[in-house]
């Protein structure tokens, strides 16, 4: 037998060994290839992540510039039968002008610093960094900064307060490498902070 014939024989034998299990599986399912393929795909129940607002933490405020940084803490609940990862969160935080209905000012931008993996049927905490823009810092200084007393200690504090709204937000999650994107909005978000006068900024 020539060398070429030997190589051809080996290729045919390899192909037969590779395809044999598929052929057997196909026969086991009545010759329907789609039945065979269904056995190979995971059954995933797709449902959007459920978000719950928890509060604000780790406030940093500069009374000279109006710059503010704070963690917006949310809980995300995974009701799917598989793990998913929150890859990205981004949004604009606006101030809703109570004196002039319909007018809003961009105060800050929010983002998720790192992806968060959420196992099936569990919840995880999301810490979203919110930082004021230069325009937002100026708006806070001129419109939403007061001085008062801490209700517990009686010490003088800065009071930052306005009605906000989360706009133009997006949450991106991935399941088995497939990206899922959903809009993120939160109207009428009450923003109220106190910060010690002379505190570290």
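^ structure tokens above, recovered residues below v
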């Amino acid at each position: 037998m020539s060398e070429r014939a030997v190589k051809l024989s080996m290729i045919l034998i390899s192909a037969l060994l590779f395809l044999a299990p598929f052929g057997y599986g196909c026969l086991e399912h009545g010759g329907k290839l789609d039945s065979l393929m269904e056995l190979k795909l995971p059954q995933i129940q797709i449902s959007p992540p459920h978000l719950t607002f928890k509060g604000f933490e780790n406030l940093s405020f500069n009374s000279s510039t109006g710059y503010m940084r704070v963690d917006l803490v949310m809980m995300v609940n995974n009701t799917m039968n598989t793990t998913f990862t929150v890859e990205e969160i981004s949004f604009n935080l606006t101030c809703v002008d109570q004196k002039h209905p319909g007018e809003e000012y961009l105060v800050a931008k929010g983002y998720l610093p790192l992806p968060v993996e959420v196992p099936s049927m569990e919840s995880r905490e999301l810490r979203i960094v919110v930082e004021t823009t230069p325009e937002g810092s100026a708006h806070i200084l001129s419109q939403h900064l007061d001085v008062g007393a801490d209700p517990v200690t009686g010490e003088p504090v800065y009071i930052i307060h306005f009605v906000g709204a989360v706009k133009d937000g997006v949450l991106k999650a991935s399941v088995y490498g497939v990206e899922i994107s959903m809009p993120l909005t939160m109207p009428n978000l009450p923003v109220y902070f106190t910060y010690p006068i002379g505190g570290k900024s």
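The longest helix spans residues 3-28.
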